[in-house]
Amino acid sequence: MAEDLINNKDIYFPSYLGTNDKLITLLNRASQILCEWFSKADKNGPLPLDKSFKCIMPAEDGNSEEDLFSEIESLLKNSFNPVHPGSLAHLDPPPLIFSILGELIAAGLNNNLLAYELSPSVTLLEESLCKWFAQKIGFNDFSGGIAASGGTLSNLNALIAARNNAGLGTNPNSVLLVSEDAHSSFVKCIRIMGLDTNNLVRIKTDNQGRMDISDLRKSLDKCSIENKKIFAIVATLGTTIRGAVDPIKEISDICKQRNIWLHIDGSIGGIFAITSIQIEGLNNINQANSITINPQKIIGITKTSSLLLVSNMSTLKNTFNTGLPYISSNENIINRGEIGIQGSRPAEVIKLWLGLRFLGLNGIENILKSSIKRKDFFIKNINNNKFDIYSGPLHIVSFLPKKLEPKDSDAWTQTKVNELINNNFMLSRPKFKGKYFLRVVMGNYNTKESHIEELLKLLNS
Ligand SMILES: Cc1ncc(COP(=O)(O)O)c(C=O)c1O
């Protein structure tokens, strides 16, 4: 049982002596279980129908290795499997192999991005990688960035910096402008920032789901008449429901004329900006003050991996630096905990770094192009006499039967999602502007045209 564990204290932690044979055996066994789970995905489907996993809590004595490995297997058997080719519901693609390795190394290192002294190499790595991304998108030498756990937090880092930069830190009249198709987490950001939902001004979108520039101008004039102080405009580079791209050039011109911070929520589409892939509307992004890029959402960097890039690093320093009195500082190196919301943070940047180095720019481009190709194939072959299709230049498609009443969309999508999952296809049913849609996200590298044909047969029949 667990006795040998308790008696042999070395097993609690890696040993600083010897070869850590026990740890190697355990890691090998865990890797084996994980790899078997990947390769059984085809048999088990994207969502397990077996709900047998029991959330057993720690007991008085520690459990045996055998107990724990059997719990791990049960947990895996009851988990969503992003590797299955029918996993097409969300922005959660299969994990990149080198990102999985990065995750292991980050866990073993257990370094802390709070401070340079707790993560010397990783601090430099994160700083350099942010700078590399910033330069790739056309920012100048003052630029840089900070990693965070997900798009919501990167956007929040940007908005707090924008408000601080505008000198509106405590002003209850400060407002944020986003399109009506922007991600729902902006409501959360506004609440966290101590503002009312009315401080989030929604700009209409056109029939392609892009921010309507004439409505933006009208809203700006209205804000000025009502003495509202705008601390930022958000342009979305890839909306969640249909992958639309707001007209960044026009929005950035307006921001420049009126001296307003432009934040680009590139959680979905931002990564395209470092490739040569032509995306309609994706231009002038180096005119922004900040941009969120979330490589976990398309190219398979394991969660979480999001970056906020800023055109001027001093905006982050001025906003978040409080001093860390218990940490030694080095004049030339910024403690990463002093330029963003998060304090202690894992060395997650390793999985982004290893993933990107493994892929190279060609590999990144290949993955992104393949997503667009799958989307194009889907749109070309879906019965467009039967469905209204909503999609932009990225890899996301929402659709609904023509003439379906909004009140019937709930039942129709629910029935369809159930029917599809029984056939091993997982799609999502987002609620958007008062009705439900079916949504397919073509970010899964394992999905081949034959799978899409199979999916279309189920939809078109
Ligand atoms: C456009 C956009 N922005 C922000 C987010 C929030 O990202 P996260 O879930 O990583 O916090 C999402 C999530 O899908 C998104 O689609």
Write structural notes for this entry:
There is one protein chain. The chain is of the alpha/beta class. The chain folds into three domains: 3-81; 103-355, Type I PLP-dependent aspartate aminotransferase-like (Major domain) (Aspartate Aminotransferase, domain 2, 3-Layer(aba) Sandwich), CATH 3.40.640.10; 363-460, Alpha-Beta Complex (Aspartate Aminotransferase, domain 1). The protein contains 14 helices and twelve strands. The chain has helices at residues 3-7, 21-39, 41-44, 65-77, 97-109, 120-136, 151-165, 185-192, 213-225, 248-258, 313-320, 349-381, 406-422, 449-460; strands at residues 144-148, 174-179, 200-203, 229-236, 262-266, 290-293, 306-310, 387-391, 396-401, 431-432, 435-436, 438-441. The strands form three sheets. The protein has a seven-stranded mixed sheet, with helices on both faces. The protein has a three-stranded antiparallel sheet with strand order 8-9-12. β4 (229-236), α10 (248-258) and β5 form a beta-alpha-beta unit. The chain is globular. It starts with a helix and ends with a helix. Residues 1-6 have low confidence and may be disordered. The structure holds pyridoxal-5'-phosphate (PLP). Pyridoxal-5'-phosphate binds next to α7.
